[in-house]
Amino acid sequence: MILYCVLSTKHLCQKRRVPFVGIDDFAFKRRHKYGVIICDAQTSHPIDLLPDRTAETLKTWLAQYNTVIQRISRDRFARFREAINEVFPQTIQIHDRFHLIQNLWTLHNQIIKKVLPTRILKENKPSPSSSPLPLTKQEKRREQNAKQKWERAIQVKKLKEEGHSIRHIATMMNMDWRTVKADLLKEKPDTGERKKRSKPINDWTETVFTLEKNGRTVQEIYNAITEQGYKGPYSSVRVLVTEIRRKRKQGQTLQPSSYYTRNEIRRALWQWRYSTKEKDKAFVDIILKRYPELRPYFAFIQGFREAVSNRDKEQLREIVLFEKSRGDPLTKAFIDRLLIDFPSTLHACSFEESNGFVEGHVNRLWFLATPFFP
């Protein structure tokens, strides 16, 4: 099938005059054999497939291509850069913005792992003077739904007082009769808060803590609380005991709400600029105060994302060069790799084009190749 695709598209590259192409690699078989797909950026159609991703193969294709290519969109694969620079040194090369942000996320993840511990204890200090946080969109929606349901329940009660039957009310209001019956039983409006499902093990948490601390096994704990009236499954006891032992081994408190996880911090720092929740921004402030060494990395990552999002080439240049002058070992490899091909990175902010259309064809090729190269 892949060979058929190559042969059927080979003649197209000789007929089309394409000023802008996108290049990306794809896997015939992952970690074993790779090829290259070349697409027309104006039509988003593939124009050729190359059997491998070596620089020599790409050079041969570019040399035989009799149309002057003005722009090429690609990822940061070094062999692509070498081949294009040798054959078309004047062509404008554009880094794919998706891969730039993906590489930035990898750097962000590495920094979090290096700087922060796995778990961070919360500071549970009361702050009566602080004002309550505003409701999120989801919380506002729940509150509005609860208000509407209570207004509906009042209307149902009024119709019932007028002598209408439950079935008649259901027909009049286009509701199920069971919903009408539930509305008649309501005595006050709902709070709109989502309630967590209660588990039998929740009532025995303190008992399990005590028994496990005294050296009891999971089976002994299960037998002991079952004799006292526990009706839940054995697996719930096993999961709770495993969590207690894991936290004790890592030196953490046994209360699950008394620490922040590294995943929570990673997400909050990454989404800081785009989050509309005040509690997320307050959370980031807490983390940056407790770990001031994160501040320069946080400023760099947020500034980089803002510059790429706003297509601000000069801002991106200043941010990268400033981070280079800091000489930080955690960002050095990322910055050095950017500066090797810095003009192409800046072009990502100068042109609207990206490599997304090529990624779509790469996914299709992977789907075709999987049955033949598992």
Provide key terms for this protein.
single chain; 374 residues; alpha/beta; 18 helices; extended
Could you characterize the architecture of this molecule?
This protein is of the alpha/beta class and 374 residues long. 57% of the residues lie in helices and 10% in strands. A 5-stranded mixed β-sheet has the order 3-2-1-4-5, with helices on both faces. It has a two-stranded antiparallel sheet with strand order 6-7. α4 (78-87) links the parallel β4 (71-74) and β5. The protein is extended and about 85 Å long. The chain starts with a helix and ends in a 5-residue tail after the last helix.
Largest sheet: 5 strands, mixed
Tell me, what's the shape? Answer: extended
User: Which percent range fits the helix content?
Assistant: 55-70%
Structural class: alpha/beta
Per DSSP E runs of 2 or more residues, the count of β-strands stands at 7
Structural Rg: 30 Å
What integer is the average pLDDT? Answer: 82
* Strand and helix order: HHEEEHEHEHEHHHHHHEHHHHHHH
- The tally of helices reads 18
Low-pLDDT segments, ≥5 res: 125-130
In order across it, which strands form the biggest sheet?
A: 3-2-1-4-5
The end-to-end span amounts to 14 Å
Strand content: 5-15%
Brief rundown of the structure:
By secondary structure, the chain is of the alpha/beta class. Helix content is 57%, strand content 10%.
Outline the fold blueprint.
Elements: H1 2-10, H2 12-15, E1 20-29, E2 33-40, E3 46-50, H3 55-64, E4 71-74, H4 78-87, E5 92-95, H5 97-115, E6 119-121, H6 137-161, H7 166-172, H8 177-185, H9 205-213, H10 218-227, H11 234-249, E7 259-261, H12 262-270, H13 278-290, H14 295-310, H15 313-326, H16 329-340, H17 342-350, H18 356-369
Parallel strand pairs: 1-4, 4-5
Antiparallel strand pairs: 1-2, 2-3, 6-7
Helix pairs in contact: 3-4, 5-12, 5-14, 7-8, 9-11, 10-11, 14-15, 15-16, 15-17
